């Protein structure tokens, strides 16, 4: 496979979809998803969509759609202090991802997780903020659940323990919602 399709050289994470039709590339502040044609392996993957950690997304970096802050807040779990969450979100960095046929799920610094719709040029469907660092993620084959591996210290013993958070995706009104966001 030729590497001339890459628009930048430094990526912090890469991931292939389970069915080998999508390739996701993450840098600290940007992401790219490529479509792979398995019938023509000698042909370079084609850019499907791309975006930035601020929610901007589109078919190319020259044609990005801006994400409104009000939309990010509406489709998030930022219930207590949305201004503080938005301030933290303005400086988060990508760490790892999972890509499926329809979704790109990105986990990053400051406990943030983003769910992006690959059928809508990478539009942000949901932003989740954990109070603890996200160490690993996975998505169910039917795209209905996301599991997060987190670690936290017991405040009395200071022993660090691992926990799993299971998010159930419910699609409604252009985003992902539950009671006020995703169910955990």
Automatic annotation (TrEMBL):
<protein>
    <submittedName>
        <fullName>Unnamed protein product</fullName>
    </submittedName>
</protein>
<dbReference type="InterPro" id="IPR036322">
    <property type="entry name" value="WD40_repeat_dom_sf"/>
</dbReference>
<dbReference type="InterPro" id="IPR015943">
    <property type="entry name" value="WD40/YVTN_repeat-like_dom_sf"/>
</dbReference>
């Amino acid at each position: 496979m030729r590497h001339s399709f890459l628009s930048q050289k430094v990526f912090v994470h890469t991931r292939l979809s389970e069915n080998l039709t999508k390739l996701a590339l993450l840098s600290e502040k940007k992401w790219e998803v490529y479509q792979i044609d398995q019938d023509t392996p000698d042909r370079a993957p084609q850019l499907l969509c791309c975006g930035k950690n601020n929610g901007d997304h589109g078919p190319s970096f020259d044609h990005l759609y801006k994400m409104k802050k009000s939309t990010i807040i509406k489709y998030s779990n930022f219930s207590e202090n949305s201004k503080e969450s938005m301030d933290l979100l303005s400086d988060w960095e990508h760490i790892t991802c999972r890509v499926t046929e329809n979704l790109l799920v990105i986990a990053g610094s400051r406990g943030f997780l983003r769910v992006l719709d690959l059928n809508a040029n990478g539009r942000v469907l949901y932003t989740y903020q954990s109070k603890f660092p996200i160490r690993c993620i996975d998505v169910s084959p039917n795209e209905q659940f996301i599991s997060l591996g987190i670690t936290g210290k017991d405040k009395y013993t200071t022993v660090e323990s691992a926990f799993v958070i299971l998010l159930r995706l419910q699609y409604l009104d252009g985003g992902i919602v539950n009671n006020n966001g995703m169910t955990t």
